[in-house]
UniProtKB/TrEMBL annotation:
Lineage: Bacteria, Bacillati, Actinomycetota, Actinomycetes, Kitasatosporales
Domain Response regulatory: 3-119
This protein's UniProt keywords: DNA-binding
Name listed for the protein in its UniProt record: Response regulator transcription factor
Domain spans labelled HTH luxR-type: 134-199
């Protein structure tokens, strides 16, 4: 049997996922949690093969307490559920010890398929998310340009961005011009929109 820990803060949604998984002959939901700080403790107690975690449950219980789950139970693999993501966020989640990512709007059998793939030692990325990542292309911005753009998106004035990043105001303006050119935006606001939609910031 594949032992599953199910973490989702909405009780009705969690019950639906539990019923879906329990319908399978080779899958058993051995524990449930609502993402209120008890994920690692629950996992250690029930020793699941797969932890299916809703990312909205406090950002996937802070991605299972930033690796503590994997450190204490290396045999347990994480499958994160979310309604949407960006290519940049997807890469970040997969770098944070997640073995798989699935869209909550996916067909029911896709969740079952994802659980089984993880147990076989494979990764699973929802096809919708994978396709979006391929369509988005590589991030053309440098790490410094991303920093400048994030601060710009927060409404931080140019002079303050310069002070925070230990740059001159002229250098910040040069970065913003390069960002606008690289994103194909008509203005800084447009560049922020394009970069955000593409998952680059």
């Amino acid at each position: 049997m594949i032992r599953v820990l199910l973490v989702e803060h909405t009780r009705l949604v969690r019950g639906a996922f539990a019923a879906l998984l329990s319908r399978e002959d080779d899958i058993e939901v051995v524990a449930e949690a609502d993402g209120d700080g008890d994920v690692v403790a629950r996992a250690v107690a029930c020793r699941p093969d797969v932890a299916v975690i809703g990312v909205d449950s406090r950002e996937g219980e802070e991605i299972a307490v930033r690796g503590e789950l994997q450190a204490r139970l290396p045999e347990c693999r994480m499958l994160l559920m979310m309604a949407s993501t960006t290519p940049e966020r997807l890469r970040r989640l997969l770098d944070l010890h997640a073995a798989g990512v699935i869209c909550t709007n996916a067909p029911p059998d896709r969740l079952v398929h994802g659980v089984r793939k993880l147990v076989r030692g494979q990764r699973f990325v929802d096809p919708e998310f994978a396709l979006a990542a391929l369509d988005a292309g590589a991030n053309p911005l440098t790490p410094r340009e991303v920093e400048v753009l994030r601060l710009t998106a927060d409404g931080t004035p140019t002079r303050e961005i310069a002070e925070r990043l230990c740059l001159s105001a002229a250098t910040v303006r040069n970065h913003l011009s390069a960002i606008t050119r690289k994103t194909g935006g008509r203005s800084r606001i447009d560049a922020v929109r394009i970069a955000t939609e593409s998952g680059w910031v």
